[in-house]
């Protein structure tokens, strides 16, 4: 008999799902229990159906497990982020490693060397995307994160995973947004090398009377720039100095709301992995390159480096940095790799491909690599499912998955990144 919404049942959690929820089965129906761990027994209320089962609302934990940890954030359970705080550190690492292995096993791909999970230290997150609401109809203004499966905002004036530069800014920024009557919008915060960069992703126009207040606010809180919008079309509200990030020995200007790896330490783990796969004198193409953080730190070892991405904002920023170097071996071009992947003929000019696609993966590009004569590929991914799909394409073309490094930049959440090295033929990593 199917589960009914509102029905209260008692369940025993068998395992964790990919989003970190506990999974239990009752009469053949899969139930997803947030904040539950394997082996625990819970009383839950059945909620809306979702793909694969039903969500539930936990009512009471009837029996616990020894693996439960004390959450590090007082908003655990209300804020939609960091859902695995109740899982001990070693168990978190094991869960993330198993997420990757499960997806690879589903695609019948084996890894020769699986490295330990590399984990970012506490309070190291250098970028946050928050939601802002001015609090209309009698509601209080709120700057924070969306609650789980909800558009409601959980206000946040302290975030334990954030870098101190961002954490101490949250309260004052909420006050400044309220005072300025900024319309509801996403708010992007990033720590650059020379201050915090704020991008308000809105078309709101600041009245001239507020310009001086925002300038004072930026000076008082270590803010390098406040922009309205993203990329080259953003309007600058305050710019005390142009934000930049260090990419190897280069200073790359930071476009408003540009993508950055979540932690500098996690970025270093990925950059080092790429460096270990590079041979001196290689010709390298970096696909979905962004700001070039994975390959530019190694440019002095290379005979040629070409960066490719659809993001013109990133291309403009990196080209500005490359102009200071004046190295003809380095180039950047704009191209939509999802719809126009590099062909096998184009790939013939390179010794190594570095891939860092978005969550959707790089199916078309991997199919082109499979038809090429390339022998080495480094694939960086934030989605084990699409990574495993693409790994199967490469495996069918004779590549072997030689090394894999899981990288946890989102401690307390179910997310995991990875760097993998694929070798074919006589190639040796």
Short note summarizing the structure:
The chain has 429 residues and is α/β, with parallel strands linked by helices. The chain has 9 helices and 24 strands.
How would you describe this structure in keywords?
429 residues; alpha/beta; OB fold (Dihydrolipoamide Acetyltransferase, E2P); Rossmann fold; 3 domains; 9-stranded mixed β-sheet; 7-stranded mixed β-sheet; 9 helices
Overview of the structural elements:
- With 429 residues, the protein is an alpha/beta fold.
- The protein folds into three domains: 8-68, OB fold (Dihydrolipoamide Acetyltransferase, E2P) (Beta Barrel); 90-121 and 262-424, Rossmann fold; 127-248, Beta Barrel (OB fold (Dihydrolipoamide Acetyltransferase, E2P)).
- 23% of the residues lie in helices and 32% in strands.
- It has helices at residues 89-106, 164-167, 170-180, 208-220, 264-277, 312-325, 344-347, 363-371, 384-396, and strands spanning 8-12, 15-16, 22-26, 29-33, 41-50, 53-63, 111-114, 118-119, 127-133, 142-146, 153-155, 185-192, 195-200, 223-228, 235-239, 244-247, 250-253, 283-287, 304-309, 330-334, 352-355, 376-381, 399-408, 417-424.
- Strands 7, 8, 18, 19, 20, 21, 22, 23 and 24 form a nine-stranded mixed beta sheet that branches.
- β3 (22-26) and β4 form a beta hairpin.
- It is flat, with a radius of gyration of 23 Å.
- The model has no long low-confidence stretch (mean pLDDT 95).
């Amino acid at each position: 008999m199917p589960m009914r919404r509102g029905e209260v049942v008692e369940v025993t959690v068998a395992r964790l799902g990919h989003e970190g929820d506990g999974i239990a089965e009752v009469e053949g129906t899969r139930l997803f229990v947030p904040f539950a761990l394997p082996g625990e027994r819970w009383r839950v209320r059945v909620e809306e159906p979702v793909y694969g089962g039903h969500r539930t609302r936990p009512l009471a934990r009837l029996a616990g497990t020894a693996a439960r940890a004390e959450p590090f954030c007082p908003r655990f359970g209300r804020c939609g982020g960091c859902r695995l705080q109740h899982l001990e550190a070693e168990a978190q690492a094991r869960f993330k490693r198993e997420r990757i292995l499960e997806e690879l096993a589903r695609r019948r791909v084996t890894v020769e060397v699986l490295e330990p999970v590399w984990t970012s230290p506490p309070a190291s997150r250098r970028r946050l995307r928050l939601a802002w609401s001015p609090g209309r109809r009698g509601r209080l203004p709120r700057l924070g994160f969306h609650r789980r499966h909800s558009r409601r905002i959980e206000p946040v004036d302290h975030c334990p995973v954030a870098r101190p530069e961002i954490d101490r800014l949250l309260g004052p920024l909420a006050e400044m947004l309220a005072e300025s009557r900024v319309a509801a919008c996403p708010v992007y915060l990033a720590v650059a090398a020379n201050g915090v960069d704020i991008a308000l992703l809105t078309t709101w126009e600041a009245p001239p009377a507020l310009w001086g207040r925002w300038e004072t606010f930026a000076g008082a809180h270590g803010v390098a720039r406040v922009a309205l919008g993203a990329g080259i079309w953003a309007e600058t509200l305050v710019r005390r100095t142009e934000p930049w990030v260090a990419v190897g020995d280069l200073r790359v200007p930071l476009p408003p709301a540009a993508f950055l790896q979540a932690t500098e330490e996690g970025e270093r783990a990925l950059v080092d992995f790429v460096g270990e796969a590079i041979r001196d004198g290689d010709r390298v193409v970096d696909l979905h390159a962004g700001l070039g953080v994975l390959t530019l730190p190694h440019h002095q070892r290379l005979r040629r480096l070409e960066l490719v991405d659809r993001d013109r904002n990133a291309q403009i920023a990196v080209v500005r940095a490359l102009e200071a170097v004046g190295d003809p071996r380095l180039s950047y071009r704009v191209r939509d790799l999802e719809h126009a992947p590099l062909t096998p003929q184009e790939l013939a000019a390179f010794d190594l491909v570095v891939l860092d696609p978005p969550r959707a993966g790089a199916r078309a590009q991997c199919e082109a690599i499979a038809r090429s004569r390339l022998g080495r590929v480094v694939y960086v991914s934030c989605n084990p499912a699409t990574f495993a799909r693409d790994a199967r394409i490469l495996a069918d073309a004779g590549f072997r998955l030689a090394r894999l490094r899981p990288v946890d930049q989102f401690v307390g959440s179910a997310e995991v990144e990875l760097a993998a090295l694929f070798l074919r033929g006589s190639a040796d990593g």
